[in-house]
Specification:
Blueprint: E1 2-5, E2 11-12, H1 26-39, E3 43-46, H2 57-60, E4 63-64, H3 67-75, E5 82-85, E6 88-89, H4 95-108, E7 113-118, H5 123-129, H6 136-150, E8 158-159, E9 164-165, E10 181-183, H7 188-197, E11 200-201, H8 208-218, H9 222-226, E12 232-235, H10 246-262, E13 266-269, H11 276-294
Helix pairs in contact: 1-11, 3-4, 4-6
Length: 295
């Protein structure tokens, strides 16, 4: 298994955000990124929301750094770590806009981009941005196909149900001709889409018990049986533990064993921390004591 980070600071969620993150900013974020890069972590994450409805704030939180700006800032300070959008709401965008903007990031970062995308669920945000909420599923699937056809190509061409383009030049474009595309979501349908249209499945807010029920069952689906390429199963532990505490480090090891048995290939790490220094210590302890066990 490889280990990425659900990056602190860039989102602030009511149920797992630490108090110190509230007033942290670029310098703290840069220290996290450079430390994670040095320790060999696989990726950092950043989510996309333009504006959260006030009524949804108690559940969603309100802070969402823009991933394009955030990753551009961090790419300039790191060398190896990858950058995973977790997730872009694809129906907010034309796929060529993503291919251009994030292709530019991919080029500047030396091919370190992972595109995590989702269908979106906030009807109020769709309305705010002038994007159609109804019918977004079919548009999302076509956008995935269009994005695959366009990313990393200077003269892309695609004809689909919702998007068509030809005779245009996208310059610069991404350096990865097949950028990894991880599909978010939390439903069986999102997993089916990942099997057909993506390189990985990166669900959110699913407990280990829920995943243990869904994933073994899904391995019997036609889509899984017919898939020839590997599928990255990108999972996020449903407990917040502190690896600097020996007893909790042992519990975390047991928990990761269960995710590995389920088939996880990548894990999004998040810890229970009380300060930046504590978080950086946790990263170091995890890299020294736990990561080698799962390599």
């Amino acid at each position: 298994m490889r280990f990425g980070l659900l990056t602190p600071i860039v989102t602030h969620h009511p149920d797992h955000g630490a108090a110190w993150e509230e007033h942290a900013g670029p310098s703290e974020l840069a220290r996290i990124a450079t430390t994670a890069d040095r320790l060999g972590n696989h990726h950092l994450t950043c989510s996309e929301h333009v504006a959260i409805p006030a009524a949804a704030a108690p559940v969603r939180g309100t802070r969402y750094y823009d991933p394009l700006a955030t990753f551009g800032f961090l790419a300039a300070q790191t060398a190896r770590i990858r950058f995973a959008t977790h997730v872009l709401v694809l129906p907010y965008h034309h796929p060529l806009a993503i291919a251009k903007r994030y292709g530019t990031l991919d080029r500047l970062a030396g091919g370190r981009l992972i595109l995590g995308v989702g269908v979106g669920t906030l009807a109020e945000e769709f309305a705010l941005l002038g994007a159609a909420f109804d019918g977004r599923g079919a548009r999302y699937e076509d956008a995935l196909r269009a994005l695959r056809a366009a990313f990393g190509r200077r003269a892309p061409a695609y004809t689909g149900t919702h998007y068509r383009f030809d005779g245009f030049v996208v310059d610069p474009c991404g350096v990865q001709e097949r950028v990894p595309i991880w599909l978010g979501g939390r439903s069986p349908r999102s997993l089916r889409r990942a099997l057909v249209l993506g390189d990985g499945w990166d669900p959110f807010r699913l407990t280990l018990a829920e995943l243990t029920e869904l994933v073994p069952h899904a391995r019997g689906w036609r889509e899984w049986r017919e898939r020839t390429a590997p599928l990255e199963l990108v999972l996020t532990p449903d407990q917040l533990l502190d690896p600097t505490v020996p007893a909790e480090r042992a519990r975390l090891a047991d928990l990761l064993d269960r995710y590995r048995a389920l088939g996880a290939t990548v894990v999004n790490l998040r810890f229970r921390h009380r300060s930046l220094e504590h978080y950086l210590e946790q990263l170091a302890v995890f890299a020294a004591e736990l990561a080698p066990r799962f390599a």
